[in-house]
Amino acid sequence: MGLIGRYDEQRKLNGLIYFHRVSDPRFGGQASRNVKMFRNLCATNAYRNIVVLTTFWDRVSMEEGLMREEQLKSTFFGDIVTGGARFMRHDRSSQLSALQVIAHILMLAPTNLQIQEEIRIENKILEDTSAGLVLREEVERVLEKHRQELASLGKEIDTMKQSNESLKKELEEEREELQQHLARWESEKAELKRGLDNSLKSREQLVDQYRSVDKVRSATLEILQVKVEEDKKTSEMMVARMNEEATVHRVYNTWNNEDDLIQLTYSDNYPPYMKTIPVDDRKNPLSIFNFASFAETTALLFIQPNLLWSKLRNLAPDQMMLDKNMRSIEAHNFRLHTEARLRAKTDPNARDMYFSKNVGLRRDWYTDTVFGQQQFTGTNPTIITLASSRWRDEFMSVSQAQGRTDVTKLLTESSGNIYVQDYSDYRPSVGLSPEDEIVCQGRYGCSAVALFHLEPEGQLHPLAIVPDYKGSMGESVAILNRRIASDVKGNKYEDWPWRYAKMCVQVSDWLRHEVAIHLVNTHLVEEVIIVAAYRCLGPNHIIFRLLEPHWSTTLSLNKSARETLVPKIIVGMIGLNATQAFAFVKAAYERFDWKGLYVPNDLRSRGFPVESLNEPKYHNYAYARNISQMWNIIRKFVARVLESEYVGGDREVLSDVSIVDFCDEVRARNGGELTSFPEIKTLDELIDCVTMCIHIAAPQHTAVNYLQQYYQTFVPNKPSALHTPLPKSLLDLRSFTEEDVLAALPLKQPRDWLLMAQVPYLLSFEVPEDSTILHYAETTSNSKSTLDIIRTAAGALKADLETFIHTVEQHSDDLDDQQTPYLRYQF
């Protein structure tokens, strides 16, 4: 029931609770606006009914927490405290603090809020209330910003009259567009005002009708009063229920499955996920993503392509480039990067997706060398695999049919160094037959297979590509590289059939990376672990204490992915329709192999034995070299803690009922449905499992996330879909020219181009300093409230990570490619 409904029923409020994390290092602009809105909602007469409840006290030292609490009281909530509000603290490890808050509120004299009286007594519409004025100020601020931009453009035109006439014309056009936008805003504002006035008249008519039946209402008052006593009893019962619901506000103080407060829900589209995210775990997207990037991505979803304002539209190449060449796109990319850097010198907040360097700035971005290296240190360095005999045989038949004896000889004599990127499972994963096209609304997907030779010096050289595998080589088109080795010379830039084939591989990998490797294998798998931990492990259980610090934004990010990223963004960027995309998500989850993806097991199964990674042949596979050592560091930390906790070894682990329940919950059909999750019976198995949980949440996620902007903002390097049908025969493919490759890019669809460039920029935010494992180790090792065995182990973890920084630098220095920013590996 809303506030107005309660007012009409003459039901007053006992209290209001304002939640604030004492662990937040800053009181930012959004927090200030929230308090301002809250203040105008209540007014001074209701201040005595307010409780400012501070949370997350276990994330800061008591000294720091007291200092922040005092600052909040004296500065940001000063007038509210003076008016009678009370500051209280919530302890995550006990129900007592929640009960104390409820008890305090129930003792307060009920009151009405200012917004209730403004609407009902003063007959104000929502826009004219004190709280509504805050929103109006925000609208006026936006309008003023447009006016200032318009004035700024006018000044810019005046100063440039004597220079570039073409630029002057462009600025005038942009000013005209801004004037149109401003006029539309003013018109919409006036229309909104007229609508509100009409609404007020309608409401006045309803008030007259309401008064006419007031006598009838008065007659029923006595009947309602009879129910007061019943309501009183009901409210007493609700107190107990509120005690349960309070746990949904943070860290789930009730660790009892029977309460069903923490539970999974199920859908046909996604793996199991948390039904309700607690209030304090809900993160606003603007607190996670870059604001400008988030706003521009949102705009792209709802604005028709022909209505894109020039500032945004100009970030995509002009359609006239279809009549030009790839060099024009490269030049356009360089110009956008240069302009972004210049703007940032005067306005650091003006950064866009082109501010940072991208692969398109490299003169050699299109080469086999850069393409091969991306399999080792690109956005998805996790699936390159030693080719099975099946793939070697299939490609050998292709080389024989095409008369390429050099390829046949290499496949025969160097079978232990032939690797594959295999996306051949796409059609069966989404319910398509081999002959079906992968297409949706003019966007074409593909199911590529690429073969590589790992040369003795460590270069990963592409040998052959099937742009779209259709169940067999006989039904598919396969093309062989004209250059058998990385040192063979030739005109690589104008080898358009081969460049197109490599682009098909990148399209296939875009889907595997974003949906399976990134979304499913890190985010969605981690969510099942989080829910199982909350349901089965108490807050003081050693496993929960080890894992909980690594879950800061996961639940909110996953919710955004399910509600927005996949259905409203990803589906509109790929060659699959919504049903097929959801099937792809579910198939990836069902294939997730928990123990098989332990780093040592995974690397070995893919043909990269951990013990051999320091050999010269593997020196370019920096991901494998870094992640294998990172696994060992995390495992050493986990082992220190668990060996101290489970002094009885395997027997004590086996007798821990909470661990048994935890494993069952993750695997169960009515639980996490992650059937590959192990039954833990030994201490070693428990150490591996906990190591995997931290690995997924931190270093693995970083490895597949932060380079997206670099490799994908330049769309020709890695588009999410093709915009022309794929060739039906090798003859068709061999006839491909530059025009065909350009036509496959979304040059005629500026919104599609911008989404392909913008989404990687939105998603590839760097790990905040206070969210890294190194920061965790530093703060945990210095926290007096941390369990001794964890604090001691965290000190050793910190030392290991600081040493590891130099190892990462050395691995980067070892790379042949010194242009790729892999040095900034974060953990």
Automatic annotation (TrEMBL):
Residues 214-827 form the Lipoxygenase domain. Gene3D superfamilies: 3.10.450.60, Lipoxygenase-1, Domain 5, P-loop containing nucleotide triphosphate hydrolases. One of its GO terms (biological process) is lipid oxidation. Residues 136-195 form a coiled coil. Keywords: Coiled coil, Dioxygenase, Metal-binding, Oxidoreductase. Signal peptide: none annotated. GO terms for molecular function: metal ion binding; oxidoreductase activity, acting on single donors with incorporation of molecular oxygen, incorporation of two atoms of oxygen. PROSITE patterns: LIPOXYGENASE_3 (PS51393). InterPro entries: LipOase, LipOase_C, LipOase_C_sf, P-loop_NTPase. PANTHER family: LIPOXYGENASE. This is Manganese lipoxygenase. It comes from Lentinula aciculospora.
